[in-house]
Amino acid sequence: MQRRAGLAVFSALALVSAACSGGSDDATPTTDAPIAAETPTTEPPTTDAPVEDPPATDPPAETAQPSLMDTLPIVEPGFDISPGVEQVAITGATPGSTVSIVTTTMADERLPAGTVNEPPDGGEIDGYGSFLFRNLDATTDWRLVVDGAGITEPFTVLGRDSHPDPAFFAEQRLVPGLNYIETRDGTTLSANVVLPGPIEDGPYPTVVEYSGYTPADPNGSGFKDLFIPLGYAYVGVNMRGTGCSGGSFRYFEYTQSTDGYDAVEAVAAQPWVFENRVGMVGVSYPGISQLFVAQTQPPNLAAITPFSVIDDSYNSTLYPGGILNTGFAVEWTQDRVDNGKPAITPTGEIIEGGGQGWAKDAIAAGDEMCAANQSLRMQNPDLVEEIFDSPFVDSSDNTGDLSPRLFVDKINVPTFIAGAWQDEQTGGRFPTMLDRFAGTDQLYVTLMNGLHTESIGPANFPRWIEFLDLYVAKRTPTLDTARVIAPILASGLFGTGELTLPDDRFTGMAYEDALAAFEAEPSVRVLFEEGAAKGTAERTPLPRFVEEFESWPIPSVEPTEWFFGTEGSLNDTAADTATQTEYLALPDGMPATFLAEESARNSSAIWKLDVQWDWQHNAPGTAATFITEPLSKTVTMAGSGSADLWVQSNLGDTDLEVTVSEVRPDGQEMYVQSGWLRASHRALDEAESSVLQPVHTHRAADAEQLPDGKFAPVRVEIFPFAHVFRAGSQIRISVDAPGNNRPVWIFDTISGGEQVIIGLGGATASKVVLPVIPGINPPATYPKCGSLRGQPCRAFPG
After folding, report:
1. What is the Cα 679 distance to its own chain's centre?
2. To 10 degrees, what angle do helices 254-268 and 285-294 make?
3. Which of 89, 427, 513, 624 has a 20 to 30 Å separation from 590 between CA atoms?
4. Distance between CA atoms of 619 and 623, rounded to whole angstroms?
5. d(Cα 390, Cα 397) in Å, to the nearest integer?
6. How many of the other CB atoms lie within 10 Å of CB of 197?
7. How far is CA 541 from CA 107, 445, 460, in A?
8. pTM of the predicted model, to two decimals?
9. Can you tell me the distance from the alpha carbon of 428 to that of 718, in angstroms, rounded to the nearest whole number?
10. Residue 569 to residue 555: CA distance in whole angstroms
């Protein structure tokens, strides 16, 4: 349950004192009775009869104090009670009054004497007259205690599967412009509807974008500008607690998923929607939201296209390897907190700072619904505080709900997912959940090197349009309009519009034939060496070559070991003799991130062709590095990796960063991928782990310091990647403290100069296991150093 400052303190009821001590021994003698001697003699009795102890008496019984139901009258609350999905909202109450919540059983339970009969959870009504209780059991009867003076009739909240009748959605009508969609608990979500033509010319294939950004802003720009020219109707919906939507915002609590269900169904019920089924679109936040919504299985969801997403909030970007990412992850979260602040004061004045500007404009223009929907904003929790309070996966009350990998098996609609290995925001770990999409036979995947926006770049754009045409519009795909849009999109995102899309693949085919041809293709496409396509400018987001596979992980992958050796060698076999190497973990010895200008962090500058990197070398003695001999043949890799280390630290713990790079014959070193782990988080989920991917529990009970003076086995997960190491190149592995090997991310590391020892050879042979894919024939020539997107290059000092 929610815990808040200002918890109402209820006075204990007076205890009932029942210290009665009666009995015949205390009776007053009659005057006719003989008077016995009042002073006992000091001599023992002369009788031979045994002396009996006086009869035992029971201690005074404690009387249980009355229950709340005995002492508080049932009252009409005087405010609105709105049960939702596992929560209940109170609005219209008197600011400063108190409210607590109890189960009916708790309210009727008699507590032992000496305890305080106090409801365990509650607080003070905020200045908007509101309060929100979260995480309530839907199978329980609840009551509210008002000002400690009265108790309400019981009520229940909604369960996760308490979906409304279809008639609830059919009665709602949406028109072009700003609308409000009513959800199952009465909360209204702001929604911007844009049609490609008049309503009467419909129905139109329709897509929905759903996030806490500004999709409902009728004057904003974004995906609506992309889909309207393609002939799609667009509906942008703001999550509860953001923009002009009502309710309170908390990062992906389950009620946001059911809100998404309701939004999909309400939009699908509109007469202007083709076949009354909709698709979902979005990159990053509105991409991730699709996974959360699709798990609820809205009946009229046609397909989803989640791009640049996460598989797990904790491991992907927030606490990679158990180390807090105070760069992008915390900064993004703080933005969400600020965006969720109320737009107006309780008395209706516009608030400067915080909130979303478009909502303030709407209120200023007279939007009474938007104004009323600000009433629960003070109930938005401090998400940044929650992050700092949750360093383990089991230290938050909703961690399990924030891991798409745990529920993507519930997604039962065609899904097209795409993203980049070196994604500077969401991290690029999402491919580790691809084998969990068991609920759909139509899973299509595009994977590539690069950054956060690669997923909607020109390399993936044509297949995305084909997918939506086939599964949402149900028409034979054509790229005629996309050829006009793609250069404009690329110019804004990447700084170049000099590119062309491929020819149409389904010209002359009937829809059914085009669909069959699309579904017959391998479902996984890996775009190699994005940024070095022939005939394009350096870092143009197009690949040099493409490989296709039936599934992920790639079935033919060959886990291949390279062992750490003495003098920085990286070998096919381990040395027989145990030895060691060491370094000082000094994260402050280099920049936190390898983006050249800190002023450009979190901005679109990182996606441009002219991005400047500052990938620096470690100072001597601050990293353990290992390198192979020049490869005798080309090795192509695609998948996750594992650094299986034997580690000591003189301070009992350390933060580890393992980086894979390629040292080329021309003396240049190219970044490939990294992985991270706090050594005390090394406990593995053995059932989930594989030889190529260690999966850590990150539970508080499993955390363990490194043993003093002894080596401990520590497996570091290397995030997924795909890369070609050509003959003549060398594979290089570095182990150091986190920093300078990931743009935008900044680690709240515990490292600060500890001595870290890595075991080499014998029983403590450290190694790296990497995903080699046989049978790939890449171009023989090297891509220009620095041309690959998301992969900086630097001169190698060897």
Report:
1. 23
2. 80
3. 427
4. 8
5. 9
6. 12
7. 63, 17, 10
8. 0.90
9. 11
10. 30
Which structure tokens are listed for 205?
Answer: 């294939």
Distance, CA of 675 to CA of 785 (rounded, Å): 23
Helices 461-468, 480-494: axis angle to 10 degrees equals 130
Q: Do the Cβ atoms of 429 and 719 come closer than 8 Å?
A: yes
Helix (H, G, I), strand (E, B) or coil at 18: coil
Largest CA distance in the chain: 130
Residues 785, 670 contacting (CB under 8 angstroms): yes
Extract the tokens encoding 547: 């490989």
B/e letters for 442-474, b = 16+ CB within 10 Å, e = fewer, are bbbbbbbbbbbbbbbbbbbbbbbbbbbbbbbbe
Of 284, 305, 282, 289, nearest to 255 (Cα)?
289
pLDDT, greater one: 96 or 113: 96
φ and ψ of 167, to 5 deg: -60, -30
In contact, 205 and 231? CB cutoff 8 Å: yes
- In whole angstroms, what is the distance from residue 297 CA to residue 293 CA? 7
Q: What is the mean pLDDT of residues 68-91?
A: 93
* DSSP letter for each residue of 717-784: EEEEEEEEE-TT-EEEEEEESS-SSSSS--B----SS-EEEEEESGGG--EEEEEE-TT----SSPPP
Q: How far is CA 250 from the centre of its chain?
A: 11
Q: Could you read off the pLDDT of 362-379 as tens digits, one per residue?
A: 999 999 999 999 999 999
Which residue type occupies 586? L
**DSSP conformation class of 158:** B
pLDDT digits (tens, 9 = 90+) for 398-423: 667 899 999 999 999 999 999 999 99
**Rounded average pLDDT over 616-636:** 97
